[in-house]
Request: fold
Amino acid sequence: MLKLTLKGYKTRKSILLHGTFLLFIGLLSSCGRPLNYYRTYNPEVKLEKSLSTINKTITINNFTDNRSIKDKVDPNGYVNPPRYIKDLPVEITNAIINDFSKNLVFKKIGMQMDTSDYIMEGEIKNFRKNFKSSFFKSKEQIYIDLECKIYTRDGKLVSTYSGKSIIENKVPSLFGINKFLMNQHIRINDAFSNSVLQIRDQILKDSSKFVYN
Reply:
């Protein structure tokens, strides 16, 4: 009888500790004012130089934020502009412009639509990070979905390109949660970079279409 009592005590203790951990994660993901970890995020694309360069100029207009209303206001969403970032579409666009320019995807990233050979119009379909908890485990899900269309200067559609990343990470125990949260911007930018790489690869495969003069 004593052994059973001790076993029951340990089980209840384990459940209590796990419950406390889940409560901690829940507070991080749903509080109106998250910890400072959340306010350090800055969208950044980290990719290698393009394998080839399209010998044309392109203007990249600001991406349109077409996330659902729920994603924009839900406190579980990671990058809600009112709290975490001044203007998500502008920051996303700037990060992509920097990557295309630095890594020579096109000959030149133009600033004037009337002098560029091509124009890119982008859309943010999803850009979020959530904590998902069950009774025995918790995980972080990063979901990024981007789409862009490239047009000739006179408005003819060349093609549509998309990049989607869905990454899940196991949330560590309380002893590792501090480092895990401190590095979350790295994991989000890894997913962001992967989505942009998909778009870049699709554009390069279409290089023969970029013959507009």
Q: What stands out?
A: Residues 27 and 66 are 27 Å apart (CA to CA). The chain has six helices and six strands. Strands lie at 54-60, 64-65, 106-109, 118-133, 138-152, 157-170.
